[in-house]
Hints:
The protein is α+β, with helices and mostly antiparallel strands. It has helices spanning 3-6, 10-18, 22-36, 44-97, 100-118, 124-146; strands spanning 149-151, 164-170, 180-185, 188-190, 193-196, 198-203. The chain has a three-stranded antiparallel beta sheet. Strands 2-6-3 form a three-stranded mixed beta sheet, with no helix packed on it. A hairpin with a 2-residue loop joins strand 4 and strand 5. It starts with a helix and ends with a strand.
Amino acid sequence: MTDEEIRINPDENAGACEKKPAAEEKTEKASQEAEEKPKEEKAPEEASKDETESLKQLIKEQEGQIAKLKNAYAMAYADTENTRKRLAREYDNHMKYHLQSFALEILPVLDNCERALAIPAKDDTDETYRKAFEMVWKNLSAALKKEGVEEIEALGQDYDPNWMQAMMMVHEDGVEPGKVTEVLQKGYKIKDRLLRAAMVKVSE
Length: 204
């Protein structure tokens, strides 16, 4: 073998060593293309669906909070209205019946005045006293009437247990049963409330 046959070109040998197999080059190229290829994003329809579900959940939570606040407001409003009505009713009753206890104490004075007036005067002195009692009786009656205290009409009326107290039952000819034939003690009412029941005789 000659020297020319065994001589190897260094440049050609180096190029042969650096050259990569075709299969390896394909693999690297595919890997590079995969890296360079952008990652796939979610489809617009799927992203929109997720966003809609999230909004629906948020709306549901907000509606729950609104319902709780409305309920709390309704309860507070109802309590306030009930308190206002109760206070107004108590005030009205106080203004309407504030003289009830005082009137009950005054009624015996009226009774005594009427008993004194029922006695005939024997002389001028008795007549003077009688006029004095009559004046007191009229002034007290007028003052009480101004405050809503009125006598219960009982004589000749049908017996009403709501306003009257039957002290005895009597039989009288020509009188229907259940009629008040005599008032033993006058009854009074204040506005629409019973102050003192009338004591009466009732026909049977």
